[in-house]
Write a structure and sequence with these properties.
Blueprint (H helix, E strand, L loop, with lengths): L1 H10 L7 E2 L17 E2 L6 H4 L1 H7 L3 H4 L11 E3 L3 H32 L27 E3 L2 H17 L16 H16 L2 E3 L6 H14 L3 H4 L5 E5 L9 E3 L2 H7 L12 E5 L12 E12 L2 E13 L11 H4 L3 H4 L17 E3 H10 L4 H22 L11 E9 L5 E8 L8 H23 L8 E6 L37 H4 L49 E10 L5 E9 L30 H4 L3 E2 L5 E2 L9
Parallel strand pairs: 1-2, 4-5
Antiparallel strand pairs: 3-8, 6-7, 6-8, 9-10, 9-12, 10-11, 10-14, 12-13, 15-16, 17-18
Helix pairs in contact: 5-6, 5-7, 5-8, 6-8
Amino acid sequence: MEDIHNVMARLVKNEMPYFLWTIKRDIIDCHSLHCDQMLNHYGKTSSFTTKIGLCWNLRSLPWYVQSNPDAFFPRCYSLCTESEKQAFLDDFRLTMASSILKWVVSHQNCSRSKDGSGREEAGDSDLNHKTGPENANSKLMGLSGQLVGLACKVCQDYLGQLEHEDIDVSEDDAKDLTEDEWRDLTQQYYSLIRGDVYISNSRNHFSQCQALLNKISCVNPQTEIDGLQNIWIVKPAAKSRGRDIVCMNRVEEILELVAPDHLSAKDNKWVVQKYIETPLLIYDTKFDIRQWFLVTDWNPLTIWFYKDSYLRFSTQRFSLDNLDSAIHLCNNSIQKHLKNDKGRSPLLPQHNMWTSSRFQEYLQQRGQGSMWGSVIYPSMKRVVADTMQVAQSCMEPRRNSFELYGADFVLGRDFRPWLIEINSSPTMYPSTPVTAQLCPQVQEDIISVVVGRRDDRCCDVGNFELLWRQPAVGLPPSHGPNLCVEGLSVRKARKHMPPISSFEFPSSVLDIQPPKVRCPLASPGPTPEPPQRAAQPDVKLKDAKVLSCSLPKPLKRPTVRGCKVKSIPAESGGMVELPACDFQHVDNKAAKTGLTKAGCDRHSDTSGLKEHSLLSMLPSFGTMEGTLCQPARPSDSE
């Protein structure tokens, strides 16, 4: 098979390809392609295909779409600047305070409804032996209610800031926790979550904690996924396939990892994202969803959504007690190197993948079959459409380009999908029976969309459906300084020449003898021909259009080399005389002359003014374009 491909490659080696499909985008420069060549990549997609780009761009979502990114994208911070580090630290501390309140509420709920039957849902497994130490006769140290009081104060300050209650409070009156108080609170929180201590008389704070949590849930849609452990996932900003991703729950360790002097941080930029501690599980195992979508144009933005997707399972059972990446990352590039846990359910596939159809069957068996069509699938479509609208302003549109992307989602307990990341060039390798079935079908349907629809707009596009197509929009304005100066040069307007109605000639003009014949510029003969000058044709009186002009002021004549009168026979048989003047232009450009005077002595005959037109009286004059007009030949009637 490889030999056949090599032969085919040699046959088309010197031909121009009109359809290019590459795995890596850097192989071909889209700017060097002909406009008719199709390419399966766009340029400058880092605004949403990298972790740091997605982190920054989704913050601008409310400016483009009436949607809250916190409703589908776990909050994320770029740890490349000090301001972002401080924002992450504040978020970690607030989440820590709300986790203390959750511990109090969960402890009381477990104490009231503890019946010992059934297995607790994942995400609450950390409460099975850590929230009930009072009931167990364990020798643990009890923390005073002051810990709960500090946690309630932090949460109340957060709610007050949302209501702008801190605007009129001076810095002196603001009673924020000191760094030492934060340090003590953090260490006590670590001990509480590990189960080394418990809160004495926690039931006394139940009502207050419950009320505060209800208020926080109304303003923070991520309260449910935060859990109790305050786990964050730290990722390199520009790496893929799960490389160097770790889960951590201690703020000092996270900041130490991303410190500039740390070995792993020298060549990397890091982002930290809140880990979903309460995911939906299938047989106590975590999974995520790989969803394909196709962009065929950025202006107008055109998105095609694929109806089929597939699930990727972890090889290990889910647990928050162990932060190993093998448990919490479902990337096939990581899981394929691991063996399935022996305690994992045998109902899960050995190759750790399901099709979306198989997942719908699973939901149907559990009486939740409507969740896919009513919550999961439409929510994923809405998330993709919103994310692409934000990224559109950062993209470089190119006709005859397209690209397939793979979005990774994790479902919460309420079946809402949470966007984790978007991958460019998603793998099409048939590594499992699921991908061997879906990947070839996806590629075939892509050809139908980008090639088949060019000739037939109603052709079958397989499992793709048109998700979004907007009207064409103009290019966004440049954010950089525009130093270009545009305008028109200032020119003096030409003065309009009114038509000549009457003349009052000066005496110098009246003294000129009317010409009787043309200037003899050629040898005399029976039929004299006019001078052969391409730019100065003869102007006959009966054919000429008299130019409307005013009599120009006398100009300085160039030096006249000679002036003599030659006599030639007139057409009527008589002899007439016309002064022949040889003159020299001032410059070498086209002649632009005004009235010229004859340099010979003649008797003035004023009666000729009654018999000749203006052209017959003037030897020559210059038009506005600078062309020389010769006088017309006198006719027999004159």
